[in-house]
Design goal:
CATH architecture: Alpha-Beta Barrel
CATH superfamily: FMN-linked oxidoreductases
Number of helices: 9
Number of domains: 1
Strand content: 15-25%
Radius of gyration: 17 Å
Distance between the termini: 16 Å
Largest sheet: 8 strands, parallel, barrel
Number of strands: 11
Helix content: 25-40%
């Protein structure tokens, strides 16, 4: 049994993304509508996700494009306000992701009581956001400084829009990441949000570190969820739950429910097998 059962309540868990609208300081922030609008959209998306039956939710500043690797204080403050406003509405386990700053994600988790964090914790990358040095040793020490050692760390080992500066095989990355850092999970992604995780890469990672939780991190849809979940221990899902399956749209409860009904049927079949 993995920690997914203990923390989220099930194996083959589906962690749904609650993508926050642009926040103060972001280029696309709508200062006329203000934070009330950000909170309103987040509340509606959260309701659609929970009523649709997802297992857990993760709040992220997905529309803070282009992303920073050293996130500003105003972004974390705005995210904390949103989650604080929604606290009485949250009925399922939840995590946070401050894109792309691991320390600030941990700060937000400590402030809001989040149970897990997804981030780029390890590696040095050439990325769309510049040269990116993660300094995992400092991040984990920061976690203990915050007394947040119970927060589960989900390591994204194939960052979207980034590539290792050194050419490394994914099996070597998975093996060394687990040996050196003891992550709670490895997340395997496609190139961008909504792009399917390569099943062959997913299998290589799981075969290399069979005792570590491995999550399909992008592009899991109703058409491929059985294939992806037959390999991965669970999935992080965002775009598939949006109206017409488009990244920029709001969450549609009908799509969530249809997706989760198929997931639950798959789980029952897997248990019987």
């Amino acid at each position: 049994m993995t920690w997914l059962k203990e923390v989220i309540g099930t194996e083959k868990a589906i962690i749904a993304m609650c993508h926050l609208q642009p926040l103060p300081g972001d280029p696309s922030y709508d200062y006329k509508k203000g934070m009330d609008y950000v909170i309103e959209v987040a509340r509606k998306d959260l309701k659609a996700l929970q009523d649709g039956g997802v297992d857990a939710v993760m709040f992220s500043n997905e529309f803070s494009l282009p992303y920073l690797t050293e996130v500003k204080t105003e972004t974390v403050s705005a995210m904390a306000r949103v989650i604080g406003e929604l606290m009485n509405d949250i009925r399922i386990p939840y995590g946070v992701n401050v894109l792309w700053d691991a320390k600030r994600s941990l700060d937000l988790a400590a402030a809001t009581g989040a149970q897990f964090v997804r981030e780029i914790f390890t590696g040095v990358y050439a990325s769309d956001f510049g040269l990116w040095d993660t300094k995992v040793g400092e991040t984990v020490r920061h976690q203990y400084h915050l007394h947040a050692q119970d927060v589960k760390l989900l390591f994204n080992i194939l960052p979207e829009a980034a590539k290792y500066v050194a050419d490394r095989d994914i099996k070597d990355i998975a093996k060394s990441t687990v040996f050196n850092n003891r992550p709670d999970a490895l997340c395997v992604s496609g190139l961008t949000a909504g792009e399917q995780t390569d099943s062959q890469i997913l299998k290589k990672v799981k075969d290399t570190v069979p005792d570590c939780v491995v999550l399909a991190n992008t592009g899991v849809r109703i058409e491929n969820l059985e294939q992806q979940l037959s390999i991965a221990d669970g999935a992080v899902v965002g775009t598939a739950f949006k109206y017409e399956g488009k990244f920029e749209n709001k969450v549609e409860q009908k799509r969530v429910k249809e997706f989760m009904n198929k997931v639950k049927a798959f789980r029952e079949t897997a248990i019987k097998a």
